[in-house]
Structure formats: structure tokens, C-alpha cells
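This is your field. Have a critical look at both lines of this record:
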Amino acid sequence: MTTTTTHGGQAASPRTVPDAPGRRTPGGFAGAVASEWTKLWSVRAAYLCLLAGLAITGVFTFYYASIARINDHPVQPVGNAAAASAVISQFAVVILATVAVTSEYSTGSVRATLLWVPRRHRVHAAKALVTAVVAFLSGTAFALVGTAVAWGAFDGRASLDIGTTVQQILAVGAYQALVAVLTVGVAFATRHPAGALSVLITLLWALPSVLLGLGGDTFTAVNDHLPHGAGDHFMHVGADAPYTSATAILIVVAWAAAAHLIGLFVLRRTDA
């Protein structure tokens, strides 16, 4: 707080009085991020999503490794099990990021959010950053647990190279973070959980399943340029890919960036 004192009718220099303890709050983008972080962890949905993702990863990687052992598949990197589990565990991140956006539209609290942080791009970016950080950390945790589970279930049908394994665990985390950014963009564009989940399930699972089921070079090439198709190439080791890992992650980044821009455009045009 700034005050001005006078002496003999003359204005003295302004004097700054520090705010009372406990009343100072961060502003700007840092404040928006802090607010979104608090809001995310204030509801049980976030915890339930992450626990579900962890459980799904454990079950899937055990099944994946057990099938490889039973069918006497060629030896493969142990991290491939965790990479394969992302096709399902990614939806824990999708639901978490969707709820982070659409719950505010459902309750009407988005109006308060946009009053506190009137710059729309700041709100959008803060939500994307917070969910991406959570998705990266949880994704690496999923992959770490899944790799440990798979190592026992493989029972000798997998190789363990520390460098490759760490690379795959981090790749799963990076992919999950980009899925979170993509989800936030779609959620802002649709503003409804059912709409957002319909788009994301189609894009990340249903459409790739149909394309791979149809087979053929054309459909396979289309799938390779969808988010999960490219992400799968990025996370796996030893599988034939039509492009490098760098190209694969750039394809996923492009999808996430496009969704982010579309969501921001809708937020700016139609507001709350």
C-alpha cells in the first residue's frame, strides 16, 4: 500500500507500506498456475484418475508380458510393455484434463476464473501447463511401475538395458504430457465432458483401431500420423517405424499445438 504524507502543506514523497503478512499472493502467469494447481487437487477426481491409471498399467503390463512369455515371443526391451500400456492408461490423463476444464463450465465457476485472470490465453496456458506437468510425472510413474511388473512377468523373455529403459519411461511421460495439452484444447473447444471425451476417444483409440483393422499401406500411413500412432512409434524400441523418433514426437506436438490453438480461439470468441 502506498501513502502520501504532508508537512506544512507540502506533499511528501510517497511511502510504500508492505502488505500484511499472509495477504500477498502471486500475480500474472505464476498466480494463474498456482490457482490451477490448487483447483486440480481440490477435487477427488484427480486422485481417482491417477490411481486408476496406475492400476490399469499394472494389469496391462502383466498381461502383455505374460502373453509374450506364453507364446514364446522374441526377446524385446522390457520397456515395451509400459509403452504399449499407454494406449489405455492415457485415458486416465484424458479424463483428468477434461475434468480440469469442463467442471468449471458445469458449475459456472469459469466466470470467476475469467474475472480473476481476465487474459484468456493465460488461463488456457496455465491449465495446459499444470495438467501437462501432472501427466508427465504420473506417466513416468505409470511406466516405472509397469516396467517393474513386466520384468517379473516376462520371466526371461525381455532384455534390460538401463539407458533404453529410462529413455522409454521418460518417453511415456512425455507422450502423456502432450495428451494432456491436447485434451485441454479439445475440452475448451467443446466445453462439455461428453463432447470432449467423444472426440478424444475417437481420435486416440477408435479411429486408430479401425484403420489398423482395415489394414493396407494407406490406412497404416494415416494411423502413423495420428497422435497415438506417432506416440507409439516414439515410445517403442525395436519396432519398424516409417520415421525417426524425433519426427514421431513432433507429430504429437503438432496435434497438441493445433488443439491448444483451437481451444484458445473458441475461448476468446465465445468466452464464458
Remarks:
- Residues 120-154 form the longest helix (35 residues).
- Residues 28-270 form one domain.
- The chain is about 75% helix and 5% strand.
